Amino acid sequence: MRAISTSHLRLARYACSVESNEGGTPKLAPSARSLVENHGKPETEADPVPYQVRIPTQDEQAAILELLRVLDKEDTEQKQIFDAYSALSSPGVAFLEGKTRRLLLRRMSQVEVKSRKSMMRYLSVIDDMKAANIEIIEAEWNSAIAFAGRCYQQVTAVEVEAALRIWKEMEEEAGVRSGHVTFSILFDIATKAGKYVLAEMILKEMASRNIRLNRFAHVGLIYYYGVRQDGQGVRKAYRELVEAGHIVDCVVLNCVVASFLRAREFPAAEMVYERRKKLFTQMGGTKVPVMNWKKTRELGNVLDKATLAWAEERQMLQQIQAEQYLGPHPRMYTSFIEYHVSVSGELRQLTNLLDEMQSFGIPMDGRMFVKIFKGFAYNGGVKYTSWTRARLEHVWTALKSMLDSDIENISLQKWMVIWIIRAFAKCSEKERTREMWGEVRSRWKSDPEETSSVHHILTDTLNPVPGSNASWNRKTYKMTEDNDE
User: Fold this and answer.
1) DSSP letter string over 85-112?
2) Which listed residue, 23, 80, 402, 455, has the most CB atoms within 10 A of its CB?
3) Which residues on adjacent β-strands are paired with residue 28?
4) Would you tell me the crossing angle of helices 266-282 and 250-262 to the nearest 10 degrees?
5) What share of the chain is helix, strand, coil (3-state, %, to 5)?
6) Which of 198, 178, 173, 174 is nearest to 188 (CA)?
7) Residue 225 φ/ψ, nearest 5 degrees
């Protein structure tokens, strides 16, 4: 893999100097150079051919109308939008008005969990923008960087390099100056890849450009110290967020809890939990607000803007702060469940958490079920374990009941199916695992590609290749991300 080499990005040169590794995973080779020097396009670069609007045919006009209809719905999935867009001749963006192009890319960027497929769709539209010589604005570059760096659950040097390559193109070739959102994304990618020196360099670059840490960067710092298992750093980052005037809400406190757990400071996480329970009681048992991922992101943007707008009006910020719900939250329970699944192995404590969730009126969701099944795959199948086959069967029965009742936020998805199969493979005999696969298939609405993928995993699980080093059933004692891949 070739290394990134650029005269104006010392940071990219540090992060993406790729050493030869005998065909293995590329490694980042540290460089003596440090951060950004020049910005804008090279003087020798030729001016691009001016953008010209293409006149649609009758069929293309019909395709444009269908695309507009799809874009008008806020809840339309990315694939549906891309399919409608793909009906246009390439580059399709050349047929669209400016506002429609902006809306197309904004809708395409809005996915709950980034994946390789969603990345390819978004970047193909970006490629069309380049082919048509249409300006790409900062927000669209930011989304491209985020897709490139976060399209897989495990962020590696390859994703870091891809993200920084797009950043280089954004600043050097397109001449678009990075803002605080850009650097927050880069910092998050570096942190999740375990490139902590690079993460620190990104923070220094922000400081050298006098770019403030926004709300998301502050929360990212809390996460950063958690994965570094630095409990004092978590406390420091939280204190800095508060001192900067940012509003504390569930997202912030959920990150604090998860970060303490990652730092192996279970008592500290439990203390935050106890305080949140007291707040819930003081609020008179207010119903726990459960927002979908879009609403959560929108609220974060609103709170970040409020901090800037009312920076000199402390009373107004205090009023906004007082309106925030800070009690127990589903995402917080998910972090505790993950801890007991992957680290402590304490099924009794996990059961107590589920009982407390019920007392606060917080429902189970699909993410929690995935982690519980993962717990049986990790901790079951050995003598004297609490993670028995009987208890696993009870969990499966409970899930079936919720699926039959069409409970919101609970559905069979690929990784839930995979961990169900793995759990039964670990805790029961092969015949029961095959029966389970039949039961799951009858309920799972999946495409042929996903079904085939899971069937291969089932085969490999029941008939492991001699000498293979499959590790799905061995605890890593590390807390994973939410999609559990």
Assistant:
1) HTTSPSSGGGGS-HHHHHHHHHHHH--S
2) 402
3) 18
4) 160
5) 60, 0, 35
6) 198
7) -70, -30
Q: How many angstroms separate the CA atoms of 249 and 279, rounded?
A: 13
pLDDT digits (tens, 9 = 90+) for 302-345: 998 888 888 778 888 889 898 899 999 999 999 999 999 999 99
pLDDT greater than 90 at residue 198: yes
State how far the Cα of 483 lies from the Cα of 416, in Å rounded to an integer. 9
- Tell me the HSE value of 423 on the side-chain side, using a 13 A CA sphere: 26
Instruction: Taking each helix axis as running N to C, give the angle between helix 116-131 and helix 78-85, from 0 to 180 degrees, rounded to the nearest 10.
Output: 30
What are φ and ψ of residue 9, in 5° steps? -120, 90
Q: What is the DSSP letter of 28?
A: E
The two three-digit tokens of residue 174, written as one number? 């397109």
Amino acid at 3: A
Place of tokens 């935050």: 272
φ and ψ of 28, to 5 deg: -85, 125
Tokens 């840490």 sit at which residue?
213
DSSP, collapsed to helix, strand or coil, labels residue 114 as coil
The torsion angles phi and psi of 378, rounded to 5 degrees, stand at: -80, -45
Burial class of residue 432 in the structure, from the number of CB atoms within 10 Å of its CB (0-12 exposed, 13-18 middle, 19+ buried):
middle
Query: Can you give the three-state secondary structure of 325-356, one letter per residue?
Result: CCCCCHHHHHHHHHHHHHHHCCHHHHHHHHHH
Inter-residue contact 263 to 343 (CB < 8 Å): no
Q: How far apart are CA 387 and CA 401, in angstroms?
A: 21
Structure tokens at 411: 């559905």
Is omega for the bond preceding 289 within 30 degrees of 0, making it cis? Answer: no
Could you please report the per-residue DSSP string of 130-189?
HHTT----HHHHHHHHHHHHHSSSS--HHHHHHHHHHHHIIIIIS-PPP-HHHHHHHHHH
Look up residue 33 and give its two tokens.
């150079």
Can you tell me whether residue 9 is helix, strand or coil?
strand
Cα 201 to Cα 88: distance, rounded to the nearest angstrom:
43
Stated as kind and residue range, the H or E segment containing 19 is strand 18-19
With beta carbons less than 8 A apart as the criterion, state whether 268 and 231 touch.
yes
Q: What is the mean pLDDT of residues 49-67?
A: 81
31 pLDDT more than 80: no
Tens-place pLDDT, residues 202-215: 999 999 999 989 99
Write the CA distances from 262 to 55, 173, 477, integer angstroms.
56, 39, 10
Match 């008005």 to its residue by tokens: 97
